[in-house]
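Revision sheet: structure tokens.
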Amino acid sequence: MKSFSVQLLAFLFVALTPAISWVAGPLYVMLNLIFAFAAIVPLLVTSKQVDGRLDFEKTSFAGRLFQIWYWINVAIATPCIVYASGLLIFGTQQGNHIVTRRETREINNLSGRLDVLYGRSKNDSNPNPVKTLIAFILFDPNRSYEKTSSSGGDGPDVSATNVQLDANQVSTFGYGSIWNRTSDLLAIQDKEFTRTKGNVFVILQTDAYPMDIIQLPAICNATNAEDVIRFAKEQSEKLDEQRLGLLRITK
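Predicted:
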């Protein structure tokens, strides 16, 4: 009964865990069919009935094979249970938008960086296609940076994005952001924005402006980084925004 319970838990969590079910599910079933036949049949043949129950020698070949089969199920069940429990407790996204992936891209040999959050919106008439939910363009046309560092993630209610450009510890430039996916309010550094008024943000550093955060006043539904950059250039031209002049010639 103990072995059966472990197997049942393993099967359920493997089958119900989307990230691994396509690979682990068929593999789990195949291995169990092989080990079930190889372990149970010899075990039944060599077992004896003692006081109304089947008893077998654990040190025999059949007994050891059965234990291998049992521990394989435990090995599969344990990480699946932990992973699925983590998804249930920490990873279930709520709100009006679901982030499915993130993409980053360097701009002009690390004079800047693009970070895009893609996903689906629940209030769309057709919520299936993945699109840009929010994009950040960190850009400093006067400098190039040696490396970038980033952190953040997508919790139950908010998505965080933090990016830092570093020029050999001499010059740094970056931002921190928190996006509430229910209220659609976004905080970048100490400024608050409403995402429905524009979901592409340019964080700009020039000699005249140490940090300037510009919200492009349109919604971008691009599905790749190149189209996000193209959208930002087109919007900056429409705005005739001098501060974004250098962004329009980036590659």
